[in-house]
Amino acid sequence: MAASKLFNSIELLFINIFVVTIIFCVAYKPQSVIASINSYKEIAMSTKQIFSTNFEVFGKVQGVFFRKHTEKQAKLFGLRGWCMNTSQGTVRGQMEGELDKVNEMKNWLETKGSPKSRIDKAVFSETKEIPDYTFKAFTIKR
């Protein structure tokens, strides 16, 4: 019981020191606080799992701004990759990002698309975890 109280007191002391340090830094060195926050964000982003899948969408998906809407939606989900028209009249692509966002995009490709498109089916490769991003953004290939 005494050890638990001691631990709580030490924990509280560290929290107080941390708060005072932040207040001091904000008052006297705001750039260092911003740099620390940015570093924390980079570390947090680097620990997230990244997944990748290829896709092909069939139906009326060319001449209806399907690629443009796909690019916009992928960017809203924070995904990276590409899409392009094929000579078979489909749209093919690859996307990578957090698993929940990849799955949301899969659903969007299967059910929504662009306003004037008609989606007959969407086919996806196995979604696999990858060690790092392959692309810097989501783009339309020509």
TrEMBL record:
Q: What class of enzyme is it?
A: hydrolase
Reaction(s) catalysed (UniProt annotation):
an acyl phosphate + H2O = a carboxylate + phosphate + H(+)
Q: Which GO terms describe its molecular function?
A: acylphosphatase activity
Where does the Acylphosphatase-like domain start and stop, copy by copy? 52-142
Residue ranges spanning the membrane: these are 6-28
| Record: active site | R67, N85
PROSITE patterns in the record, alphabetically? Answer: ACYLPHOSPHATASE_1, ACYLPHOSPHATASE_2, ACYLPHOSPHATASE_3
EC assignment: the record states: 3.6.1.7
Keyword annotations from UniProtKB, A to Z? Hydrolase, Membrane, Transmembrane, Transmembrane helix
Q: Which InterPro entries match?
A: Acylphosphatase, Acylphosphatase-like_dom, Acylphosphatase-like_dom_sf, Acylphosphatase_CS
Pfam families, per database record? Acylphosphatase
Is this entry keyworded Hydrolase? yes
Q: Which family does it belong to?
A: Belongs to the acylphosphatase family.
According to UniProt, the name of this protein is Acylphosphatase
